Structure formats: C-alpha cells, structure tokens
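In this supplementary section we document a worked example of the pipeline. Step one takes a protein sequence of length 200 as its only input; no multiple sequence alignment statistics are reported here. Step two produces a three-dimensional model, which step three serialises into structure tokens for compact storage. The input and output of this example are shown verbatim.
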Amino acid sequence: MEKPSAPSTEKNREPILAVLREVFADRRKVLEIGSGTGQHAVHFCAQLPHLCWQTSDRADFLPGIHLWLAEAALPNALPPFEFDVLGPWPNGDYDAVYTANTLHIMPWAAVEALFAGLPSVLVPGALLFIYGPFMVDGHHTSDSNAAFDRSLKEKAPHQGLRDVGAVDALARQSGLMLVDQREMPSNNRCLIWRMGSVKA
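The serialised model returned by step three reads:
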C-alpha cells in the first residue's frame, strides 16, 4: 500500500503551522480529530516537538496514517485510534484539540456531536483549533467558497460549508469561548476557542 496523499495539506500546512507555533506554544497534549492522511500530524510533530500529538480517524483512514507515522518515526506522533464523533468518545485529558477541513464534510448531526463530546476530553483552559472554509453571517466570503459549497452539496446533500455563528453557538453550549479567528490563504479561516474553568 502506498501512502495516501492530500495535495491541499502541502499547500496549507505552513500557514497553519505559523498559527500553531503561537497558540499551541504552551500546549502539551493534542487530540487531532479526523487526521485524514496523517500528513498534518507528521509535519506539525516534526516542527513542534513539545507537543504530544494523538491522531485519530474512522477505521478506513487508519492504515494510511500508520504509513505516514511509521516513515516519519517521530516520538511525539502517537499511533491513531479509531474514532467517529457519532460513536463512543475516548478517555483522555487534552489541553488542545485540532481538526482541519472536517466540519464541511461531516453531516450537521456530527458537527453537533463533536461539540457535545468535547467537554469530556478537554481540561479546563484547553484550546480548540478548527481550520477550514466557513460562511460568515450567512454569506460566503468568496465566489470560490460558494462554488465549493455547491460542489459539496451536489456530491452529498449532508455536506456544506458551516456558518461561523452557528458553529460558535454549539461551542458556547459546551462551555467554549471563541477567543480568536483569523483569515487564512485560499479563503479559509482558523477558529480558536478556549474551554471554561469547569470540565463537564
């Protein structure tokens, strides 16, 4: 089996890394939800050795992630475990959660499940870092994002770009406060929340 490759990760990893260097500087234990190919995990672990990075995804993605991690042989990149946000959640006390390009692929029920489950794995003060394309105040931020949204819905009606406000409403219900959002290349955004002082 050849290692899977997602071209978008090669393009977006450096802009994301620049933000992670800043906001994850004092983090130690990260859960990545939806590791995909594993390329982000390998790149970030190599550049941010202070982070212990736990990969995870659905079962069909795990072999590819294992291949990337095995080749890189980084001590801080942990082997993936099978995880679907709609199923049982793992045990663990993480001070950060990272997920990229996942919310527009998940059905909305899974986005709801993601935020509902986060308090069970986050320690007080933990950060949630989400990267991807979003709508703002019900509107697309670019023509290319509008076209991407249409193509997603044509492939699968449950997919589509999510609105920052709708996502933030779910986050607030789970005790997360939006502390930063940044515009990124190719009309993407980084959204960063902080967990409140009381763990659910």
